[in-house]
């Protein structure tokens, strides 16, 4: 029974979290400088891509040739320092990522269990998953680098919120959480949430982005594609997380599905993301409408994450939020 | 049915009520057709999905009878007027409500109305050869051309190695792969229907019940033994698995030191189990997350509490009550608990005793007593006693844990919240009403026993759903054509490709480049260094 807590490691974990927040904040500043003062990529030779789906009877009624900024290189005129700020921000993000991971690992070692069993640990883990998702996606889609500012601000704010309102001392958890299902169910939920968060960020920018205006942000077509890619990755994971949760509930509570508030909202979130995937394939819903559906789904996800634990209770109220009964 | 739509939209789009006939003179069949087309349209399915999500929300806002019946009762007590109206709208049984059922049944009919035609189309597509090459391959989203000479069968072999389905014509090759995408899509949606059926099986043929057992007591799986028993409509009382067990010992481990004293570390219930009346006894250690399984009927540990034992001697010197009394915890951190003892056999008057049990009693600053730790370290009880008619013979059922407040007003109060009575000590009841002795502390465990024949089907369907959604979202359906042209100076090989999956073009570019490279290699004259480069270097999914 992991009753003994290594206080040294637990303190180290708390310190690492503060380091993480600071690094993310500095990274955010770097990204913002790059975004604000970097060169406008629209001046670059634009790559014309045809979006017509050949052989598709119901082809997408999009403005056929989409003008996209040339990826990767935008350094021909103007000062160099904003790009350098962007690079430093990237390095800081990686350092913050390492500190974030270290924070979780030390906490897990301190308490001798999986370090995502209460709300505080859960939020820290989701931030790690989100930043990981961003770093990996950025590697794949270079146009995403300007999203760094938004991801960093989301991560820094969430971690700040976690430290201020959710922090609990490292310690053991109630017996029902001492199960290998934590590793399966909660990990899947964390990774899916991290990916969905990136989709939430791209979705919000999509709504504010005006095409045809010079901007360093990715084009709407790109944002749409990337959002879809992220949701397509996260949706099966979320499905799996819900089903793993049902398997665990079957072991712990005597039923695999019992309409507990957390289960209801996981279900609603799942439906909402399914609706987004369907909307994207339905005439009249593509583009903006589908993106709104995606953001509604993200809202459900956030409510399930925070709101259900704080306002609705239920069997999942292990969240252990300080100040709540 | 159009055949050249993007595959995500094939049948749904064509079933959309866009080409609706004039309303006049539709006739019954026409209306049915119209209804069916509208119901199975993707737009309708989307609206039903939204409705289903929306309809689930009140289930999380109001307490549900199936989840926490106690909370529903409390809601009724605190706002009776609203509760009555909410109850009429099924707000306390959202997931059993007819309007909820209407939504999901319509959705599933719509789903089946989508799955069936799509399966038919898919089966036809499976047998069909890839389409002939279009005339101008350079108009396709992915296009490449290079010079080289190659016999067609070499190119065909290169494509087949990449598990393309290939067809050839005069001067062209057509190839297609990624058929598993639609298979996954159909599997996923069929699995959803499977999950619904499994839920239905569980609701009809499953049962569950709760029972509270004090240490030393036993349970036999019969309907009468349950405190609360919820059977499915097709469950007969005889079909219950005939097992029985005794709760030998119940133990809770608490965190003592550290900054979270009182945190539960582990629950352990030791049972002696008979799988059937004839079976030999076996020991089982019941823990959270480790239910007892007897032939698919599962017993879960879901709650616990204290059951102090008492002996009540009446005014005539007779033992009128003896044994444990299950107390309900009032505070989950300190386990200060309350219970009642009703002693109808006491002389000269019937006795009603309200007990406050404090597992670790500590005197507060104001002189009152409270518990400061959940374990029974310094257990005491405080007694409030009444004498008079308990009204048990009136035939109206009473709670075991509570007194009827109206009844108490008519009774004579003997003691009000006595000084703490320690273990082994007695409290004399004034007026010659006898005495109560606190003889011991036992614990009780609340168990849930459930049998759900839909569990395994649900698991199979869920695994199929995950598999299906993975296939349908990760695999791209892609087509490729090769034309060999002679432009006078030499042979030019043109390659064109497209994905039939929306927004699948991005990732296809790499694969396409890879395929073109492989085709180029298969045309190049035999060179010794070429053999180090295998053709299918970057394996494509599907």
TrEMBL record, chain A:
It is found in: Membrane. InterPro entries: Cyt_c_assembly (IPR002541), Cyt_c_biogenesis_CcsA (IPR017562), Cyt_c_biogenesis_CcsA/CcmC (IPR045062). Its main location: membrane. The chain crosses the membrane at residues 16-37, 87-110, 116-137, 144-167, 179-208, 229-249, 264-279, 291-312. It holds the Pfam family Cytochrom_C_asm. One of its GO terms (cellular component) is plasma membrane. This is C-type cytochrome biogenesis protein CcsB. It comes from Spongiactinospora gelatinilytica. GO terms for biological process: cytochrome complex assembly. Keywords: Cytochrome c-type biogenesis, Membrane, Transmembrane, Transmembrane helix. GO terms for molecular function: heme binding. NCBIfam families: cytochr_II_ccsB. The keyword Membrane applies.
TrEMBL record, chain B:
The chain crosses the membrane at residues 97-117, 186-207, 456-475. Pfam families: ResB. The keyword Transmembrane applies. It comes from the Bacteria. The keyword Membrane applies. It is found in: Membrane. Residues 527-536 have a biased composition (Basic and acidic residues). Residues 520-542 are annotated as: Disordered. InterPro entries: Cyt_c_bgen_Ccs1/CcsB/ResB, ResB-like_domain. Residues 42-512 form the ResB-like domain. It is a multi-pass membrane protein. Keywords: Cytochrome c-type biogenesis, Membrane, Transmembrane, Transmembrane helix. GO terms for cellular component: membrane. Signal peptide: none annotated. One of its GO terms (biological process) is cytochrome complex assembly. PANTHER family: CYTOCHROME C BIOGENESIS PROTEIN CCS1, CHLOROPLASTIC. This is Cytochrome c biogenesis protein ResB.
């Amino acid at each position: 029974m992991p009753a003994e807590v290594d206080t040294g490691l637990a303190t180290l974990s708390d310190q690492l979290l503060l380091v993480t927040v600071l690094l993310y904040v500095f990274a955010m500043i770097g990204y913002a400088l790059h975004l604000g003062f970097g060169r406008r990529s629209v001046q670059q030779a634009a790559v014309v891509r045809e979006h017509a789906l050949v052989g598709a009877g119901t082809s997408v009624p999009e403005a056929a040739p989409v003008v996209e900024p040339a990826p990767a290189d935008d350094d021909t005129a103007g000062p160099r320092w904003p790009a350098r700020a962007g690079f430093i921000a990237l390095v800081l993000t990686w350092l913050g990522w390492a500190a974030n991971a270290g924070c979780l690992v030390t906490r897990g070692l301190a308490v001798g269990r999986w370090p995502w069993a209460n709300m505080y640990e859960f939020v820290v883990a989701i931030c790690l998953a989100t930043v990981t998702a961003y770093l990996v996606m950025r590697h794949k889609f270079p146009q995403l680098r300007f999203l760094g500012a938004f991801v960093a601000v989301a991560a820094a704010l969430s971690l700040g919120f976690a430290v201020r309102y959710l922090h609990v001392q490292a310690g053991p958890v109630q017996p029902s959480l001492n199960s290998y299902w934590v590793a399966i169910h909660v990990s899947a939920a964390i990774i899916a949430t991290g990916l969905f968060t990136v989709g939430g960020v791209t979705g919000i920018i999509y709504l504010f982005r005006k095409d045809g205006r010079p901007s360093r942000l990715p084009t709407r077509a790109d944002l749409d594609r990337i959002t879809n890619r992220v949701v397509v990755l996260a949706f099966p994971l979320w499905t799996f997380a819900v089903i793993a949760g049902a398997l665990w509930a079957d072991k712990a509570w005597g039923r695999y599905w019992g309409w507990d508030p957390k289960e209801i909202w996981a279900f609603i979130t799942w439906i909402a993301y399914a609706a987004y995937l369907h909307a994207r394939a339905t005439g009249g819903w593509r583009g903006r409408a589908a993106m709104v559906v995606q953001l509604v789904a993200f809202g459900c996800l956030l409510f399930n994450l925070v709101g259900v634990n704080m306002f609705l209770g239920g069997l999942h109220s292990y969240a252990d939020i300080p100040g709540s009964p | 049915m159009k055949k050249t739509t993007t595959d995500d939209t094939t049948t749904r789009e064509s079933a959309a009520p866009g080409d609706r006939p004039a309303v006049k003179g539709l006739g019954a069949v026409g209306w049915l057709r119209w209804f069916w087309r509208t119901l199975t349209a993707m737009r309708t399915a989307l609206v039903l999905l939204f409705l289903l999500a929306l309809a689930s929300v009140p289930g999380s806002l109001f307490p549900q009878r199936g989840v926490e019946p106690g909370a529903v009762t409390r809601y009724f007590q605190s706002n009776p007027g609203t509760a009555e109206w909410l109850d009429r709208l099924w707000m306390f049984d959202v997931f059993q409500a007819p309007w909820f059922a209407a939504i999901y049944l319509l959705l599933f009919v719509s789903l089946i109305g989508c799955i069936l035609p799509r399966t038919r189309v898919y089966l036809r597509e499976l047998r069909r050869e890839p389409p002939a090459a279009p005339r101008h391959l350079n108009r396709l989203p992915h296009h490449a051309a290079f010079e080289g000479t190659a016999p067609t069968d070499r190119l065909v072999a290169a494509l087949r190695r990449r598990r393309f389905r290939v067809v050839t014509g005069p001067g062209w090759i057509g190839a297609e792969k990624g058929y598993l995408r639609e298979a996954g899509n159909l599997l996923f949606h069929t699995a959803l229907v499977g999950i619904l059926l499994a839920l239905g099986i569980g609701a009809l043929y499953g049962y569950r019940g709760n029972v509270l057992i004090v240490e030393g007591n036993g349970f036999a799986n019969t309907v009468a033994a349950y405190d609360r028993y919820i059977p499915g409509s097709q469950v007969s009382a005889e079909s219950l698995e005939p097992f029985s067990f005794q709760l030998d010992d119940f133990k809770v481990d608490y965190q003592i030191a550290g900054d979270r004293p009182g945190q539960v570390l582990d629950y352990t219930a030791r049972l002696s189990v008979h799988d059937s009346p004839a079976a030999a006894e076996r020991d089982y250690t019941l823990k959270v997350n480790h239910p007892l399984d007897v032939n698919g009927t599962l017993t879960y540990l879901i709650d616990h509490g204290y059951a102090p034992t008492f002996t009540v001697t009446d005014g005539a010197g007779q033992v009128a009550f003896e044994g444990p009394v299950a107390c309900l915890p009032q505070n989950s951190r300190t386990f200060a608990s309350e219970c009642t003892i009703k002693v109808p056999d006491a002389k000269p008057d019937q006795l009603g005793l309200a007990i406050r049990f404090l597992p670790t009693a500590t005197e507060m600053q104001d002189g009152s007593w409270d518990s400061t730790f959940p374990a029974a370290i310094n257990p005491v009880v405080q007694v409030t006693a009444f004498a008079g008619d308990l009204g048990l013979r009136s035939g109206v059922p009473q709670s075991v844990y509570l007194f009827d407040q109206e009844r108490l007003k008519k009774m004579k109060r003997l003691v009000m919240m006595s000084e703490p009575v320690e273990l082994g000590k007695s409290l004399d009841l004034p007026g010659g009403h006898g005495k109560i002795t606190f003889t011991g502390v036992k614990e009780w465990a609340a168990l849930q026993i459930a049998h759900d024949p839909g569990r395994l089907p649900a698991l199979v369907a869920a695994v199929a759903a995950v598999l299906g959604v993975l296939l349908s979202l990760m695999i791209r359906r892609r087509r490729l054509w090769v034309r060999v042209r002679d432009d006078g100076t030499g042979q030019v090989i043109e390659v064109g490709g497209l994905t039939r999956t929306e927004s699948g073009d991005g990732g296809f570019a790499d694969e396409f480049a890879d395929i073109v490279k492989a085709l180029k290699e298969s045309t190049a004259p035999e060179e010794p260094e070429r053999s180090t480069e295998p053709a299918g270097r970057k394996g494509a999914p599907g």
